[in-house]
Amino acid sequence: MEDSILFFMTMSLPENTTVLIVGAGPAGLTAALSLAYHGCRDFVIADATVEGKNASRAYSINSATVEALASINAADGLLSQAIKAKSIRIASRGSQIFEAKFDPLKKYPAYPYPLVTPQNVTELALGQKLKSLGVKVQRPHRVVGMKQSEKDSRITDVSFEDGQIIRARYIIGADGARSSIRTIAGIGFCDPESPNLVSDVLSQMVAADVTFEPEPTGPLTLEGHLNGTVSSDSFFMLIPFGNRFNVELTRDGEPTTKSVFRVSCAIPVKNGEPPHAPPKEYIQDMIDTYGPACITSDSSLNRSPVKIDQLFWSARFRTHSAIADRTFTRLGAAIVLVGDAAHVHSPAGGQGMNLAIRDAIFLAEAVTKHIQASAEDPDVDDTILQEIAKARHARALETIDFTKKLLKLASLGYDPYAWWMPFSWASIRDLTLRILGRFDFVQSSVAWGMSGLGRR
């Protein structure tokens, strides 16, 4: 069986498969690894792109996700490459407000720290693990249609843009927020609280990977610390990658020997819409306006001004929330949605890719259980799939609520609330964090919330 599967994986698409995974991002790759770990090897994983995305995008894998990956023997590659995070810091441009260390997590899981790693490095590690199992992602194959088989009511004929058709008993839709699988299956997708997908709080952001000249120094530039800077109308994140990912982050050019930094920032709506791929000048202005003093070129803020040297990647994106009406349905085959195909939300707290990976692990395990149950009883009902889909839908709603609360906290303004109250909500937030941050139970609470362990 394994030899025949490997043959199909390296040649044209097979006519039949038990499971078809559509999408080969972190969710799709993890779904394939979970299927293989739990004993299902009759699957095909196909993606619409010629090669995987080379953008770094998401950068954090939290404790709950490391734990879940380890449960299917898929964490070693990431653990060997990633930076083990030590703390998250919140500061104004001039002084520190709050620091939550991840040390309190040592009493909970086997992996008491988030991992800091660019998304393309995560995908590379997962892809290499899958390749070691003899599985190759089929590219480029774009799904354009699905219909119930005329010969078997529990099979779906999946059509691809190149004219090929695969007959599948299970379909895992891991094809992103614009999921073809979700759309063709007729599953709705909207914000659970509003018909408008776009949040009005910190609604647009820009992210980039850069080096500086000269290289900045100071506590915020040390590996393992996630640094947030609050200002009157923005929130800025600085993540030091060091130089351990330089080869992967500079795939189209000569690897740099300098430390690479991830910068991301909310762009006020009053500033207009950011460019599609913001240039170096735009990122520099963003840093000078909203970033911490240690990485600005403004000599009035930084005694040793620095400027961007190289820009490796940049992107704009919107912070919005949406969730599929349901995560499981039938169109002949059993269809389950994972990752962004099932839910999207703001990047606050770094929960998106983490929830996607855990979705994939748990749903793929349920699919293998259903396959095994069907082998014993061809008329078995869908309870196994319905229950896990319901549970993952509930987790997604919890995560959307969590990220919205973080956004609201981060977006509080420094303008006085009213003429009769010369304080702002942001100044009250900062004072509260300064006071509460001294207590161990607050440190533990923040670390627990960021870990995802309460929302496995």
Automatic annotation (TrEMBL):
Signal peptide bounds: none
UniProt domain FAD-binding: residue ranges: 17-246, 310-377
Pfam families: FAD_binding_3
Keyword Flavoprotein applies: yes
Cofactor: FAD
InterPro entries: FAD-bd, FAD/NAD-bd_sf, RIFMO-like
Name of this protein: FAD-binding domain-containing protein
SUPFAM superfamilies, per database record: FAD/NAD(P)-binding domain (SSF51905)
GO terms for MF: FAD binding; oxidoreductase activity, acting on paired donors, with incorporation or reduction of molecular oxygen, NAD(P)H as one donor, and incorporation of one atom of oxygen
Keyword list, A-Z: FAD, Flavoprotein, Oxidoreductase
Entry superkingdom: Eukaryota
